[in-house]
Amino acid sequence: MKAANDRIEQLNETIQSLESENKSIRESHKQEIDEKDEETKDLSRDLEKFSAEQSDKLATLRAKLATALQSQAPTNTDMGENGTSKKRKMSFSDYPIDAASRKPTIQEPCHFHLLGDCRRGARCRFVHPDGDDLVRLRLELKEKKV
Ligand SMILES: [Zn+2]
After folding, report:
1. Which residue stretches are annotated zinc finger (C3H1-type) (predicted)?
2. Is the pLDDT of residue 117 over 70?
3. Which of 47, 97, 107, 109 is the most exposed place for a label (fewest CB within 10 A)?
């Protein structure tokens, strides 16, 4: 009977030591978990701060861009043939080009001009004939087509 009691006592001791070990493991893990929680909180705080900074920067850049575009945009209003001001869509021909580049650089009649509508106008790189030349060239174009 004594041997059995000893055995039980021994087992109880083992159980107790296991329990205390278990408890200390749980505690140390709890501490780790707490630390991780803190880290996570710190990181999300950093992240919040970072994205706030980024959206501030983005807003500043957008404002700068808007200002730059406004100061560069040419006037949107052209005088119409009858002297009244007419609004039209912006096109690449609205952008200022220096006088030299307005001269035709390709010594060929502009196909669109001959057809009656060259949207590039004075900035077209092809020749825009007028008067008799224009009439003649338009006729030639018609004959070529037939
Ligand atoms: Zn043209």
Report:
1. 104-131
2. yes
3. 107
